[in-house]
Write a structure and sequence with these properties.
Layout: H1 2-21, H2 31-49, E1 58-64, E2 67-74, H3 77-88, E3 95-102
Parallel strand pairs: 2-3
Antiparallel strand pairs: 1-2
């Protein structure tokens, strides 16, 4: 009986340690935040790629804790404004950082 309780305690300690490893800090995302950001990045890329104006234009998308950073190049200021608006329209985006350059 004593062996069983030690095993249960060890399993509980391992479980708590694993959960603590998933927690985020101010400088590191939690596992859930990482997955949420990956989904946001995919959605922003999809809406931008589905736009006709984006042919031959290079816009990179990165997300960290809901903040989307757009970088790359577009041909016109209208394309620039459209890319920013599309990124803001995606659910889960809390802020858009604009590093897009107009060529």
């Amino acid at each position: 009986m004593k062996t069983r309780s030690i095993t249960q305690i060890a399993a509980a300690a391992l479980f708590v340690t694993a959960l603590a490893g998933c927690a985020g800090t101010t400088k590191q995302e939690s596992t859930g935040e990482y997955v949420d950001d990956a989904v946001i990045t995919t959605k922003v890329k999809a809406v931008i790629l589905n736009e006709k104006f984006m042919n031959g234009v290079a816009v990179n998308v990165e997300t960290y804790k809901g903040t989307v950073q757009l970088s790359g190049f577009v041909k016109t200021s209208a394309d620039h404004d459209k890319a920013i608006a599309l990124a803001r329209s995606v659910k889960g985006v809390t802020q858009v950082k604009d590093d897009i350059v107009i060529r």
